[in-house]
Design a protein that fits this description.
Two copies of one chain form a homodimer.
Chain A: E1 2-7, E2 13-18, E3 24-30, H1 35-55, E4 63-69, H2 78-90, E5 96-99, H3 100-109, E6 114-119, E7 123-129, E8 132-136, H4 149-164, H5 172-181, H6 186-194, H7 200-205, H8 207-216, H9 220-244, E9 250-255, H10 257-261, H11 263-274, E10 278-281, H12 287-297, H13 303-322
Parallel strand pairs in A: 1-4, 4-5, 6-9, 9-10
Antiparallel strand pairs in A: 1-2, 2-3, 6-7, 7-8
């Protein structure tokens, strides 16, 4: 039996295939697979590009698969539609189709009870206890995604706009943002935000890095935005656990640029959650290996085999981390 | 001499032409003329459609004109570029080109010292004292436009999203919004917000009407959003006057759906400003007649003639209001 894990995303899609001895025999990357954002044709094309090279040599019946895809849970009959497309394009049964935050959780805490927070350009939180699970936040940049890089960027640019037109007292924030973004005046500022050449969402999210740099050199407004973002992210965790009621200590894992790279947000996030008995930990496996693990678990849940399989995955992950 | 006023917008564009006896001899409407949003070709086409029917019969040299257009002040060399296009398309000199908020002010307070707030889908505030003028807010829906219909809609939908996923306690707000928007569940909610068939900005702004209805029947969260929006709008006025220092009483006029139709926002706005010696009044003339007035004033500023001209404009406006 082979185990296939797919980690879909708005930018790229990753696939890993393990053979019966749990050896990684194939990995590949293709373009985005958010069916709502990129459309069905792009979704189909990137699935084909991702998996054609390996599927021609393997009997589809020998594959147990898990697809972690964006947009799952966000439109009607999602699983049915996605399963049909996967069958048409790849001739395999998609045994498990979940939102990509679920494979983040599975990789993060080896599919054990716990809560996983994705905080990159967008944000979404997923928690599981036994068969109970819950999603919090993740409504997208238009309505929410509080605590994400988009949110940090938006809050920062909003603050600058208020300083520029006099609604707030001019502080170093505007001076520093203008310098870092290489802006001369308010026309450059408007052009940066509304530039039709750039993807607006990633463009605004890209400011979050600068907010972090500025906060590190002591800017109080930038620091406040980051601390409030951490508070928003922590709120998604405590909200998830209000429903799940996992016993303490509650393991919280994370992925995405904000919690991985922004130490101010991460430390505040850890501090806020520590009070409630939450233990924040870096993920044990990448999301794509989380998908492989779910493909395995949904096929085989024998305790001993499970531990062996997980050990193999941890070894694969460790070796990749070294590279 | 003829006086031409043009009121451009993101949805439609209006033109009025008055003859030397200040009679309204022509009016016409065409599509949007936001050169940044709609592009140069649409801008050119709608200008032609708007004014071709009348310009073929009049000597261009006999026309004094004022164009109030969106996007003025938002890109480099705006006036130069727009003047060139107007000359190419219509063969007339655009004597005055200003942002459409400026003709709102001119119509609102007959081009006298004061502050004008536009609060429709977006929002922007403009104030003038003598030769000094200032713009506040109006950075667009992505960054700000606090107090606009978009802002009210966004704030309302954000609140619903937090109630839906448990970050906030479920109140009647979600129940009422779901009922008014005819939504069954969170999938309908996501579909409403991200529907690619609809213009996202106007779609979200359209929720502001519902927030108003719900606030009227006593919903506390909706009421809070409206009061905070009024506070944001009032802040733009006091910010403008921090710079202008107009003597009290300071006349504040307004246009746009939020301040025209939402009585809760308008009453709170009036109340907040009353404390500082601001007198909020409905506009004396429509923006397009404000444009005609500016076309006249930039040509002729003789006191007596000015009063006669204004009286004619007020009469035209009154008659139109009756229809």
């Amino acid at each position: 039996m082979y185990f296939l894990g797919v980690d879909g995303g708005g930018t790229k899609t990753i696939a890993y295939l393990l053979d019966e001895e749990s050896n990684l025999i194939f990995k590949n990357t293709s373009g985005p697979t958010n069916i709502l954002e990129n459309g069905e044709e792009v979704f189909r094309k990137n699935l084909r590009e991702l998996l054609y090279p390996v599927l021609k040599n393997i009997n589809p019946k020998d594959i147990k698969s898990c697809f972690g895809l964006p947009a799952v849970g966000e439109f009607r009959e999602d699983i049915k539609i996605l399963r049909k497309i996967i069958k048409e394009e790849l001739n395999i049964e998609a045994d498990t189709i979940v939102n990509d935050v679920v494979i983040g959780w599975a990789g993060g805490n080896l599919a054990r009870d716990g809560i996983h927070v994705v905080a990159g350009t967008g944000t979404i939180t997923y928690g599981r206890k036994g068969n109970k699970d819950i999603r919090v936040s993740g409504w997208g940049s238009i309505i929410g995604d509080e605590g994400s890089a988009y949110y940090i960027g938006y809050r920062t640019l909003n603050e600058v706009s208020r300083e520029l037109d006099g609604r707030k007292r001019r502080t170093d924030l505007t001076k520093l943002i203008f310098k870092k973004l290489n802006l001369r005046d308010h026309l450059d500022f408007i052009e940066f935000i509304y530039d039709p050449q750039k993807d607006r969402r990633s463009n605004i999210a890209s400011v979050a890095k600068i907010t972090y740099e500025i906060a590190k050199i002591g800017d109080k407004k930038a620091l406040k935005i980051l601390k409030e973002s951490a508070k928003e992210l922590a709120l998604t965790v405590t909200t998830a656990n209000k429903f799940l009621k996992i016993e303490k200590p509650i393991t919280v894992t994370y992925s995405g640029s904000v919690l991985e790279k922004n130490e101010i947000v991460r430390e505040e996030f850890i501090k806020l959650l520590a009070k409630g008995g939450y233990e924040v930990k870096p993920p044990k496996l990448s999301p794509v290996l989380g998908a492989v693990l779910l493909a395995f678990l949904n096929y085989e849940n024998n305790g001993q085999k499970r531990e062996d399989f997980i050990n193999k995955l941890l070894k694969i992950y460790k070796e990749e981390e070294k590279q």
